[in-house]
Amino acid sequence: MLDDAGLQALREAARLSPDNLPLRRHLADQLLAKGYLAEAEAEFRAALVLAPKDADVSAGLAEAFVRQSSYGEALAALEPFLGEPGCPPRLGVLAARALLGEGEVAAAAHRYHDAVTQDPSLADPALAARLAAPPQALGGPAPYGPGANGPYGGAPSGPAPYGGAPSGPVYGGGAYDAPSPATPAAETSAEVERSRFTFADVAGMEAVKEALKVKLLLPIQQPELFAAFGKRAGGGVLLYGPPGAGKTHLARAAAGELGASFVNVGLADILDMYIGSSERNLRATFDLARRNRPCVLFFDEVDALAARRSDMRQAHNRQIVNQFLAELDGVDQDANEGVLVLAATNAPWYIDVAFRRPGRFDQLVFVPPPDASARAAILRILCRDKPIAEMDYDAVARVTEHFVGADLKGVVDRAVEAKLQQSISAGRAIPLATPDLLAAAKSVRPTSVREWMATARNYVLHANDSGAWDELMPWIKAKW
């Protein structure tokens, strides 16, 4: 309950005129100035509904969050502006305070230095003194190593106490400081492999393969042509669709088509029980890909690493997302040259919207359930290394509607098991025939397409203001 008559009058005026943006902003500013932080937050949120792109309103909301120690929420409020040219310096100082609260000392110092360089009147001696103190003295984790990058800025480059320019060896298109004995270089459990698959091993999905070729493969295969248009090799594509539709297989095939290294990143390669270790693992994984370029870096079930920060309760979970965004941006514009980042998810609507910004996963590619001709082609590939008699794949495809690639593999496996039993009894190999696959198909049910399409329908029809899911519209209108 407000005990200030002036504030009560302002609040009543705002209640009677809810769409008056200047009045609501003035009320929020007054509440913030007098320490009514929760009330100020509510008013800034209401003002943000009226003016979603107003930097001053977002700055006020971020300050209310910082003063309530809600540092992750503050960074989420500022994030749309921090990467844009001409970002107001005040927002940089607020970001520095929030980053410091999250333990990102190096990134906080970098943000503060940039903001004060642009507007010296924003200098905050108390904040500068905290940034100059050793990280352990601040109660937060130490940076990942000398010159480490935070999620909202590159390595500090200004004068002391903000750090000097990186002086270590150069690799992967960017400079980094050689790790000191106290901070050894992080290692990753992810491994580099060579894919034996190409797009010839992917049945159907011609539109998906063409999108991957244009976005990821052609810039490396025809560098002169793309360089003429200022297009660099590298980038990110997010594959999404129902489980079992072949997203991982597509990623392997893209690496094989290019003849590039392939790094398949699982959750166990990144997530760690100790705070800060997951971020180090993520950075080490990107460094591994940069050392082996051209490289396809593939993140399966990426929604576990890139979930919406607004849904997270723990600050260290938000830090993983922040680090992921920083690695996608790279330490400089050429850092990820030749690193093709692919990610796959069954739940794209749970991924933080910041990942869809240009330069990150700016292209969403829907991997659809296979149609009849694609199902026949998948069956042909699955059976090509097995003894077969005359086979009518089209007939099997017609009775496997709504089956994805994983379901079809289950059909073939079940038919093979039955045929093996017959072969063992007969003492010779009896080839697979059409009736074997038809019989197996009757005992297998499609696993997930109907359920996935039902979920997708809710988002396409009720949460598609940005148009991100327009590609799904023809599919959800079909009968499932």
Layout of secondary structure:
Layout: H1 5-16, H2 21-33, H3 37-50, H4 55-67, H5 71-82, H6 89-101, H7 105-118, H8 125-132, E1 170-171, E2 174-175, E3 192-194, H9 206-221, H10 223-228, E4 235-240, H11 247-258, E5 261-265, H12 267-270, H13 277-291, E6 295-299, H14 315-329, E7 339-345, E8 363-366, H15 372-383, H16 393-398, H17 405-426, H18 434-442, H19 449-462, H20 473-476
Parallel strand pairs: 4-7, 4-8, 5-6, 6-7
Antiparallel strand pairs: 1-2, 3-5
Helix pairs in contact: 1-2, 2-3, 2-4, 3-4, 4-5, 4-6, 5-6, 6-7, 9-11, 13-14, 15-17, 17-18
Strand content: 5-15%
CATH class division of the largest domain: Alpha Beta
The total domain count is 3
* Number of strand elements: 8
**What structural class is derived from the secondary structure elements?**
alpha/beta
Describe this structure in words.
It is a single chain. A six-stranded mixed β-sheet has the order 3-5-6-7-4-8, sandwiched between helices. The protein has a two-stranded antiparallel sheet with strand order 1-2. The chain contains 20 helices and eight strands. The longest helix is centred in the C-terminal third of the chain and has 22 residues, at 405-426. A hairpin with a 2-residue loop joins strand 1 (170-171) and strand 2. It folds into three domains: 5-141, Serine Threonine Protein Phosphatase 5, Tetratricopeptide repeat (Alpha Horseshoe), CATH 1.25.40.10; 192-366, 3-Layer(aba) Sandwich (Rossmann fold), CATH 3.40.50.300; 372-442, Orthogonal Bundle (Helicase, Ruva Protein, domain 3). The protein is 49% helix and 7% strand. By secondary structure, the protein is α/β, with parallel strands linked by helices. Helix 3 runs antiparallel to helix 4, helix 4 (55-67) runs antiparallel to helix 5 (71-82) and helix 5 (71-82) runs antiparallel to helix 6 (89-101). The two termini are 53 Å apart.
